Amino acid sequence: MRRLTWHNASQSDEQLREYLILALLRSRACVMLQDDLLNYLYITNLPHIWSVPAGNAPTDESIFGAGIGRQLGEAKTMVLQTGQAVKLEVMADGGQIFEIHIETIAGVKDTSQILTTIVDITESSRREQALKDLLLEVSHRSKNLLAVIQSLATQSARYSGSLDQFIAEFQGRIFSLSNSQDLVTEADWFGVRLFDLARSQMLLFGARRAVSISTTGENPLLTPNAALYVGLGLHELIAATFADAGLEGAGDISLTCKTVIHHGRACLSINWNAGRAADKGADEPATASDDELHRSAFSALLLETVLPQSLSGSATFSVFFGGIAYSLIFPKTDYNVRREVREDMVWA
């Protein structure tokens, strides 16, 4: 039997026993002692979800119920036969989780007794499971992010007219991803507001031009996955806006968002208009350098294919002389948008 690590010889066994009983009560650990016939000798600190029946001598099944009681009875019989301690984890009806240690100790007249200790580990089990879930989520998101970066590198190289253009544009897109990831992390991986995402992406371009974003309509809370792709799309739109010489002095950028019913489903409709994109007469093509044409091709691929497909939606992208227009529609599923108070909807 394990003894005390150390004690003063002036302390009597009776005094030590009183101290240990007090500490046991405060520890909330349940201690149960049975003889070699599994008759209960004492029970202390029994968790409140169980109780000792009045009138009759307690048994495992009368205390813990048929399921757990039978499991404990079989384990105790095995411990008596083998002399080897056993540790179990059981879940009670209320969802609480308990760790149970069963071992033999020496009784009177060379008999064996069964000592059982029960500890509530519900909170520690939940924390452990939450940590496992978080690690799996981080692993999953890291793999997704690496796949996005690999795709960006490949497509940026394919659509770049020169090495310098590739380096500049690829770095910009990586900064965009990093920026969106920072917002997601600051929000404890819950979500990012669309307009916050847009303003954050605009800040990456500094004060290169006196252009600001005017935001109207709903400001949905995008999931981390949606924020990553929408942020990348916003970066591409801002870069395309600044690259268009016809937008010089053309005014602010308009970003609107609303809920619509599209093909019988509740969807988000996001619209980006820069310069004279809304002017139906301003549709003459803009002259562009080779680098601008390469970027326009990549932008069209990202904005019309990659971004909408990642959200199970659809999109259109138009470049005019002095104007850019983009429209994105995607379903308001839990995969894309965090649930909030229901908004008014219109048919589209």
UniProtKB/TrEMBL annotation:
Catalytic reaction equation(s): ATP + protein L-histidine = ADP + protein N-phospho-L-histidine
Transmembrane segments: 311-330
Catalytic activity, EC: 2.7.13.3
Keywords annotated in UniProt: ATP-binding, Kinase, Membrane, Nucleotide-binding, Phosphoprotein, Transferase, Transmembrane, Transmembrane helix
SMART domains, alphabetized: HWE_HK
One MF term in the entry's GO annotations: ATP binding
Protein name per UniProt: histidine kinase
